[in-house]
Amino acid sequence: MNKELLLKTFRNTLGATIYIFLVSQIMQNGSKFFGEKDTFLTPFVVLLLFSLSAAVVGGLVLGQSILLFLDNKKSESVRALFYSISWLGVYTVLGLLMLVLIK
């Protein structure tokens, strides 16, 4: 097991998780921040936020794997992808446990 790769994927997916949490808070409290009334800009900004989120999270989760693949380190690339998906699974389970405990 490559501890450096495990730590990099942990750091990247933790960053993605924090980013997702912050975006979810903006979405949940959007009416407090921006008012109740929707304007013609609302769908535009929501789609921009969606696109930005896809780029940020995609870069954080897949970036390490892509860089390793481009460096012709294919086995490490697959390992990094597996680690990233595993870390996201751990964060998801922790989130679900927190929902159960808060209930």
Compact overview of the structure:
The chain is mainly alpha-helical and 103 residues long. It contains four helices and no strands.
Average pLDDT score: 93
Sketch the major β-sheet. none
How many angstroms does the end-to-end distance come to? 38 Å
Shape: flat
How large is the count of helical segments?
4
The count of DSSP E runs of length 2 or more, i.e. the number of strands, is: 0
User: In what range is the share of β-strand residues?
Assistant: under 5%
Order of helices and strands: HHHH
The chain-level structural class is mainly alpha
Number of domains: 1
| Portion of residues within helices | over 70%
Rg, Cα atoms, Å: 17 Å
Architecture overview:
This protein has about 100 residues and is an all-alpha fold. The protein has one domain. It has four helices and no strands. The longest helix is centred in the middle third of the chain and has 30 residues. The termini are far apart. About 15% of the residues are buried.
Task: Summarize the SSE layout with pairings.
Layout: H1 3-28, H2 30-34, H3 41-70, H4 74-102
List keywords for this structure.
87% helix; flat; mainly alpha; 103 residues; single chain
